[in-house]
């Protein structure tokens, strides 16, 4: 069996060892740092044309074992896939129908996994989105607090402002905005597990008078312009291409004239929003984010503009998310024994690949992350934003 694989793989000179189910081994390069353990004969055929989806699925399903640093596993897997499969850049973009029931089920699948599991590898506020590294040397807690501050400053949040937090997660941003900037916050989520813990943390900090969190779909947001500012972090990836115009219209209807809207989310590399290549996108859709779809920056800017919002600032945080995911991945790797008691073995395998793989994807430029700031113009078309960004960095 190994003889079938050697011609295809040995020329790559990778620090990789293959171990068959009968104990036989083959080194494909000097000083192997990673070992692929083939538990199932069917994996041999997959390794002859190894898409990232096929390799990931084989690991998740227990047909393939991995030994070695997870970041090196991801790198070597990509080299093998690129050499033997090549790029499939012509894959058609995903277009899925999204309704309230489908989206609620998808959110529950991902976010209702286990609050304790997420707490193992997130920062102390459990902020499950890209951090902001002002110098690149910060630890995760510091960088996440900097991200929350960066968002609030971009929104020019002031004491007494009424802030809508779309996809509030465990409430880290809502509490920060209330505590540090004196805002009133209304946050929404579709995750019951997140909501329960978020409300508890609001109560623990004595912020019940400033922060209200509800289980609510973005399609049901009030459309009377009651909010001064709107922020949406790591949420529009779940909306779907088909519903992006509606999503932007709901944000427009929720904010007052002159108010600001901040959308922080992952964006696609390609204009048509096609999934990440060589099967990586398919793996994420199947195992991690069902029905998730990434729009290109241009599409999102266009949808915001068509809804009546004027885009005034865009910032890429691609390298920031690569670093954030590197922290998350390493935190999980450091606590695998604890994690194994919280989630099923297959789930833990998914998350090991997902966190390390996404860090690699961002570092390679396969996907990006953009903060898009928009304003709802006043009746005469004007707005009151500062003439420069100087106030953000004081």
Automatic annotation (TrEMBL):
The gene is COQ3_1. Keywords: Lipid metabolism, Methyltransferase, S-adenosyl-L-methionine, Transferase, Ubiquinone. The keyword Lipid metabolism applies. One of its GO terms (molecular function) is 2-polyprenyl-6-hydroxyphenol methylase activity. Belongs to the CFA/CMAS family. CDD domains: AdoMet_MTases. Its EC number is 2.1.1.222. GO terms for biological process: lipid biosynthetic process; methylation. The active site is at residue 358. Residues 13-75 form the DUF7884 domain. InterPro entries: CFA/CMAS (IPR050723), CfaB-like (IPR048027), CMAS (IPR003333), DUF7884 (IPR057206), SAM-dependent_MTases_sf (IPR029063). This is Ubiquinone biosynthesis O-methyltransferase, mitochondrial.
């Amino acid at each position: 069996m190994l003889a079938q694989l050697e011609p295809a793989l040995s020329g790559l000179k990778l620090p990789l060892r293959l171990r068959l189910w009968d104990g036989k081994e083959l080194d494909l390069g000097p000083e192997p740092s990673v070992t692929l353990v083939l538990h199932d004969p069917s994996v041999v055929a997959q390794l002859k044309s190894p898409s990232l989806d096929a390799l990931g699925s084989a690991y998740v399903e227990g047909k393939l074992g991995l030994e070695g640093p997870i970041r090196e596993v991801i790198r070597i897997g990509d080299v093998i896939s690129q050499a033997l499969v090549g790029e499939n850049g012509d894959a058609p973009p995903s277009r899925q129908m999204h309704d309230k029931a489908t989206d609620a089920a998808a959110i529950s699948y991902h976010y209702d996994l286990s609050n304790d599991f997420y707490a193992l590898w997130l920062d102390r506020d459990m902020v499950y989105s890209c951090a902001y590294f002002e110098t690149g040397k910060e630890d995760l807690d510091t960088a996440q607090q900097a991200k929350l501050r960066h968002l609030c400053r971009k929104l020019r949040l002031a004491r007494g402002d009424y802030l809508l937090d779309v996809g509030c997660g465990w409430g880290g941003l809502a509490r920060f905005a209330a505590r540090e900037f004196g805002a009133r916050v209304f946050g929404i989520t579709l995750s019951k597990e997140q909501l329960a813990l978020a409300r508890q943390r609001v109560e623990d900090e004595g912020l019940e008078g400033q922060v209200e969190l509800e289980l609510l779909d973005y399609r049901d947001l009030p459309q009377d312009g009651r909010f001064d500012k709107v922020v949406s972090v790591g949420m529009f990836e779940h909306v779907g291409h088909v519903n992006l115009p509606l999503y932007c219209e709901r944000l427009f209807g929720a904010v007052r004239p002159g108010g600001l809207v901040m959308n922080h989310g992952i964006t696609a590399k390609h204009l048509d929003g096609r999934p990440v290549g060589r099967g990586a996108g398919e793996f994420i859709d199947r195992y991690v984010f069902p029905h998730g779809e990434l729009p290109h920056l241009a599409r999102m800017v266009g949808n915001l503009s068509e809804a009546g919002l004027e885009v005034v600032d865009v910032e890429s945080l691609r390298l920031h998310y690569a670093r954030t995911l590197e922290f998350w991945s390493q935190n999980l790797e450091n606590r695998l024994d604890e994690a194994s008691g919280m989630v099923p073995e297959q789930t833990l395998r998914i998350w090991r690949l997902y966190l390390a793989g996404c860090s690699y994807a961002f570092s390679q430029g396969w996907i990006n992350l953009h903060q898009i700031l928009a304003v709802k113009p006043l009746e005469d078309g004007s707005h009151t934003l500062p003439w420069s960004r100087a106030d953000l960095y004081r």
